[in-house]
Structure formats: structure tokens, C-alpha cells
Amino acid sequence: MQNKNKTLRWSALWFGFAVFLFFSNAANSQDTEKEQRTFQSCPNDLITPSMIEGVPAAGKRVKQQLASYGETNVFHSLYLPSNFDDKKKVSGHFRIRRKWSV
Questions:
Q1: CA–CA distance from 14 to each of 11, 18, 19, 43 (Å)?
Q2: Any domain includes 93
Q3: Does one domain contain both 31 and 48?
Q4: pLDDT digits over 53-102, tens only?
Q5: Range of the domain at 55
Q6: Cα 34 to Cα 37: distance, rounded to the nearest angstrom
Q7: Is residue 8 domain-resident?
Q8: Who's near 6: CB < 8 A, 6+ residues apart?
Q9: What is the pTM of this model?
């Protein structure tokens, strides 16, 4: 009786494994029929504006560098959205710096 239960358990295990393999292969075959979508296949809808040297303003991407890094190639860029308004009040627990040091 014990040997029969052991055989039954192994049979159920193999059957479950076979079902798993069948459904996993079926899912893989459906994926290959569809076109695989990657980030390279998506349209470019974001355009990075060219970087300029100057005073930050709405819609411009400006190159800035700290005075202590003046002799190096270390800098950061700042982009303000085209609808940016420096006179607009912003709610929250922070302040906006309205004077720019370049």
C-alpha cells in the first residue's frame, strides 16, 4: 500500500510538471508571434534642448559652473520649462531662489 502511494505521488508530480511545461511553452509561442516592444521601438517624443551659456530663462537649458570649478570641465545644467513663471507663488515648505549666479 505504501509503495502504491509513493508511485501515485510521483505520477502526480510528473503530470503537474508536464502541464507546467505545456503552458509555459504555449505562453512563449504567443510572445514570439507578437512584436517585441523595446525602448528603441518607441517613438521619440521628448526632445532635449541644446545647452547654452547664459542666464537661465523659461524654455532654455543653461550650462552652469561653480567658481571653484572654473578650471575644470565639471558643470551642471539647468532647464526651466517653457511655462515657468518666476513670479508665480508655489505652495509648500520650501523657497524658490529667484537670483541666479552664473
A1: 5, 6, 9, 46
A2: no
A3: no
A4: 888 888 899 999 888 988 899 989 999 888 888 777 666 666 666 666 55
A5: 44-85
A6: 9
A7: yes
A8: none
A9: 0.43
